[in-house]
Every structure is written in structure tokens, then in C-alpha cells.
Design brief:
By secondary structure, the protein is α+β, with helices and mostly antiparallel strands. The protein is about 55% helix and about 15% strand. Strand 3 and strand 4 form a beta hairpin. The N terminus and C terminus are likely disordered.
Length: about 550
């Protein structure tokens, strides 16, 4: 197995080799002789092949008034007409000199004129080139006629039947082999995969493993079938002269795209190497930043005026900035990034993102702002607008609040940032949260007695802090009653509703014990019998000996 040092050495060697290629190419260009320019001009001259039955006979060049492709098509049409004519004898092909070049004649018909430019392109004299051309035309005519004789066509038909039978047999064998292989894999490795699933505590499922294996085998099978069908079509089409051009075109349809892909890959190797190095550097940098802020979050590194709760949000923000900077740096090196299609797609995506991301960006920015405002954190009891409950999650775009009814309310961070937030837990742990309830008591009851009874009710209530002690405020001297406010301290804001319930129960019990009537908001006269519950009726049916209590583990 290669070590990390070996891998790094290989990477540096590849980078050095890629960097040396431009210098080597420049050196070769400067060292090229002056005649290379002329050769390059000759290579840049457009030529076209003269084809007969899919076979290239020779190539011809063209002119501005008569392009090479049109000239090659015209020559090929004359040769095919001569080959299809049963009265023409190929031996009648001969050469005649003219003012513009050497003409290849078929009886009195001009088949082709060999020019001096054609000879210079091939690097030989004009007349030798014309003689070679005549020989190739004769051989092509003879082959054209021989391929269309009855015995040759019959042999081609028999070979086609044999090839078709072999293809069907091979396809059936592939299907049979695939089924046997699937059964063999299940029989041999099925239990091992199940044991692996059990050991991984079902992180790796049997179905996913088998699905991956089946996909791999299916891919190999499909690729093999496509290759066999391709070879079969190329062989069968090449047997008949009428379909032979299609057979040679099939090879071009496959080879040309692969050649272009390989050429594009080799051209993009330096850019791909730069992107790979950039990826490794950015990944290493992100790991360093993550470890640093993890240490800040755990308290191993401390900074003045920088809270530990800010560590993870700051890391996420820096990660976005680093990744965005890496994308900006690496974008020009992405293969195809300079093409018009790539630019058009990038522009389209940018417009779509800008049109549909206004609320998204607002919520994201609000989420980061909330992290630094320290308005609340997960586990706090808060009230956001009309929503009150426990903060269960603070995400980049929304804040999740669980209400007393066990409802999950999702509040967009932009809404949180734009409204007032009441945090019941922020000071409760250190100084206690003040809970307040009010009662209205008549003027005939001494206020000192009322305050003592309210203090007694608070003393009986679980979940309240003994220090600071509860206190009473007389809020109003109303028309029919005095309004007393009982203020108590608790360090359990998540149990506010349960504590309020216990406190109200104890207030009712204490006032009933002392026979003091709690006034309604208004009345017309004093009743003959005070509106209190006698002690012997406190547990009237269906009440039990003890009043119901909320669960102490309730979070409100």
C-alpha cells in the first residue's frame, strides 16, 4: 500500500510534469526550422477523401471556387458510374496531358485531373501520382463488381445468418450466467453480508449491499451486450457493399467522440491538477479552522469579549466565505467554463437564484445575526410574538419552538429579528424568574392577613426559590376589592404552567382554610354566607384525598 509521502511525491511529480509541458512546447517551437511554417501551411490545406463502397481511394484538394468536398463527391460519382456500367472495361483507363494537368480518361470521359498542387501535397511528381491514381481506380472498379456477384452475396448472407445465431447464443449465455452468478453470490456471501449488517447495527443494510452488487453486475452485463451488438452490426454491415459505408461510419461514431473526450481530458490535465491542489488546500484549511473553533467552543481557547456560543456560527460563516473564495479562484480552471453554453447556464442560474432567494438570504442573514445577538439559545423558554414555548432548534433559516401543547412552531429568522423576543430563561438561572399572580380581596379583610396568606400559599408551592423570598404588591384599590399581586421566584422557567397551577391551588386552599372570600371582579352586595368552600367539602366526589399534581418532569 502506498504511504502518504509516496502519494504526495507522485502528485508533485505530476504537477511538475504538467508545468514543464508549456516550456517544452515553447522550446520545440523556437527550435523548429524555417521550413516548418511551409509544412504547416501545406497541412492546413483542406482535402477530402474520394470514397467508393466506404473505402477511401485517395484524397483531393479543392479551391475557393470548387471546394474539396464537392470535387471528391464529383470524382466518386464518376467512378461509381463507371463501375456500375457493365460495358466499361477498366483497362480502358488511360492518361492524357492537358494544359492544366494530367487527366485520367475513361474512353473519352474525364474522370479526374491531377494537378501540380495535388502532386506537391503528396510530395511526388504529377505523372507518377496520376499513374498510382489510375491503378487505384481500376482496383476499386474490379472490387466493386466482384462484391455484387451472386456467389459473394450468397456467402455474405450465410455469414450473416451464422453471426446472428452466434449473437443469440452468446446473449442467452450471458443471461444464464448472470442468473447463476446472482444465485452464487447470494449463497456464498449472503450470510456474511447479514453478519456485517448486524455488526454495524443496521447502518449497512442487506438490501443496499445487494442492490449495489446487482447494479454493478447489471452495468457489466449491459456494457458487454452493447459491445457484442456493436461488433455484430459492424461485421454484418461490412459484408454487403450497399451497407459497407454504414459499417465504417459506426466506428467513427464511437471512436471520434472518445478521441475528442481524450483530447479534452489531456488538454485539461493542468487545470484539473490545479483544481485538485486547490481542493486539498481548502479542505486542509477548513479542518484547521474547524479544530480551532471546536477548541473555542469547548473552552480550551478563550478570547476576551468573544462568547463560546459564537464559535460554531463563526466557523460556519468562515466556511462559507472560504468555499466562496475557492470557487471564485477555481472557476476559470473548470473545463468548459469559457464556453458560451457554460456562461449561459451560469447566467441563467444566477438570475434564478437572485429572483428566488430574497427571502432565503434574509432568513440566512437573520440567522447569523441571532447567533451574535444572544437573544436565546436551545432549551430556553421564550415568547416570540404570539408564540410561547421552548426553543428546540435554531437553524440557519428558521427557529423551532415547542409549545406547551407539544406543537412544533417554525418561525422564520427574519420574523424573529423583526419582532420582540421575551426570554424567560436568560436570567432565571442566576437571579430567578419572577412569576406573578393577582387576587381581589374585599376591604373588610385586613391587608396584613391577606399578605400572610399569600406568602403561606407560596411557601407550600414546590418549584419556587426560598431566596429571594416572595413579596406582595398592592396594585389597585378598586371599587369593590383590593388587588394584591403575589410575586415569587423560580429557576425553572420550563415549568411555568405547572408552577402557576400549584400556586393557584395553594392560594385557594389557604384562603378557604381561613374563611376569606376571593372577590369576583364586581358584585352588587355581600352574600349572607361567604363564598368559601368549607374544609369538610374540599374532597367532594369525585375528588381524591390529595389534589392532582402536574408531573414534576413536565416542561410546561
Amino acid at each position: 500500500m502506498l504511504t502518504r509521502r509516496t502519494c504526495l511525491a507522485v502528485v508533485f511529480l505530476i504537477v511538475a510534469f504538467a508545468a514543464a509541458q508549456p516550456a517544452r512546447a515553447w522550446a520545440q517551437q523556437t527550435a523548429a526550422p524555417a521550413g516548418a511554417a511551409e509544412g504547416q501551411l501545406e497541412q492546413e490545406i483542406t482535402t477530402a477523401p474520394v470514397m467508393l463502397d466506404g473505402v477511401e481511394l485517395f484524397r483531393v484538394r479543392g479551391a475557393s471556387s470548387f471546394p474539396a468536398a464537392e470535387r471528391a463527391a464529383a470524382v466518386a460519382g464518376r467512378i461509381e458510374a463507371l463501375a456500375a456500367s457493365p460495358t466499361f472495361n477498366p483497362d480502358n483507363l488511360h492518361l492524357e496531358e492537358s494544359e492544366i494537368g494530367t487527366q485520367v480518361m475513361a474512353d473519352r470521359q474525364v474522370v479526374l485531373t491531377v494537378l501540380d498542387a495535388d502532386a506537391r501535397l503528396e510530395g511526388i511528381g504529377r505523372k507518377p501520382l496520376a499513374m498510382v491514381t489510375v491503378q487505384r481506380i481500376r482496383a476499386a472498379i474490379v472490387s466493386y463488381r466482384a462484391d455484387r456477384t451472386g456467389p459473394v452475396l450468397q456467402r455474405s448472407a450465410v455469414r450473416t445468418l451464422i453471426a446472428t445465431g452466434l449473437l443469440l447464443v452468446v446473449l442467452v449465455a450471458i443471461v444464464w450466467t448472470w442468473r447463476r452468478l446472482d444465485a452464487a453470490l447470494k449463497a456464498r456471501y449472503g450470510r456474511k453480508v447479514e453478519k456485517l449488517t448486524a455488526k454495524s447495527r443496521h447502518v449497512v443494510s442487506v438490501d443496499s449491499v445487494w442492490a449495489s452488487l446487482r447494479t454493478l453486475i447489471r452495468f457489466v452485463r449491459t456494457a458487454l451486450v452493447i459491445m457484442l451488438v456493436f461488433v455484430y452490426l459492424q461485421y454484418v454491415l461490412a459484408l454487403f457493399p450497399q451497407t459497407r459505408p454504414i459499417a465504417w461510419s459506426l466506428t467513427g461514431y464511437v471512436i471520434r467522440p472518445l478521441a475528442k473526450l481524450w483530447e479534452a481530458f489531456t488538454t485539461a490535465i493542468p487545470d484539473l491538477m490545479f483544481l485538485a491542489v486547490l481542493f486539498v488546500v481548502v479542505r486542509f484549511l477548513l479542518k484547521l479552522i474547524h479544530r480551532f473553533f471546536d477548541a473555542v467552543d469547548e473552552g480550551r481557547i478563550e478570547f476576551a469579549h468573544f462568547e463560546r456560543e459564537w464559535a460554531i456560527p463563526t466557523y460556519k460563516l468562515l466556511r462559507v466565505l472560504v468555499v466562496a473564495f475557492a470557487i471564485v479562484v477555481g472557476f476559470p480552471y473548470i473545463p468548459g467554463s469559457s464556453s458560451d453554453a457554460f456562461k449561459g447556464v451560469s447566467l441563467f442560474l444566477g438570475v434564478m437564484f437572485s429572483l428566488g432567494s430574497s427571502s432565503l438570504l434574509a432568513n440566512v442573514l437573520a440567522g447569523y445575526s441571532l447567533n451574535y445577538r444572544r437573544a436565546f439559545k436551545v432549551g430556553d423558554r421564550v415568547k416570540i410574538g404570539d408564540v410561547a414555548g421552548e426553543v428546540s432548534a435554531v437553524r440557519l433559516q428558521v427557529t423551532h419552538v415547542r409549545t406547551i401543547r407539544n406543537e412544533e412552531v417554525t418561525v422564520p429568522n427574519s420574523v424573529v429579528l423583526g419582532t420582540h423576543v421575551v426570554n424567560y430563561s436568560a436570567l432565571a438561572r442566576a437571579k430567578g424568574l419572577i412569576l406573578t399572580t393577582t387576587v381581589g380581596i374585599g376591604y373588610e379583610t385586613p391587608w396584613r392577613q391577606v399578605e400572610a396568606m399569600l406568602i403561606e400559599a407560596a411557601r407550600r408551592t414546590p418549584g419556587l426559590l426560598p431566596e429571594p423570598p416572595p413579596f406582595i404588591r398592592q396594585q389597585a384599590l378598586g371599587d369593590f376589592a383590593v388587588t394584591y399581586a403575589l410575586c415569587v421566584y423560580t429557576d425553572q422557567p420550563l415549568k411555568m404552567e405547572a408552577i402557576y397551577t400549584d400556586l393557584h391551588r395553594n392560594v385557594l386552599d389557604v384562603f378557604n382554610e381561613y374563611g376569606v372570600q376571593i372577590m369576583t371582579p364586581a358584585y352588587e352586595g355581600d352574600p349572607e354566607i361567604p363564598k368559601v368552600v368549607p374544609k369538610d367539602q374540599w374532597f367532594a366526589a369525585p375528588a381524591t384525598a390529595e389534589p392532582p399534581r402536574d408531573r414534576k418532569d413536565s416542561k410546561g
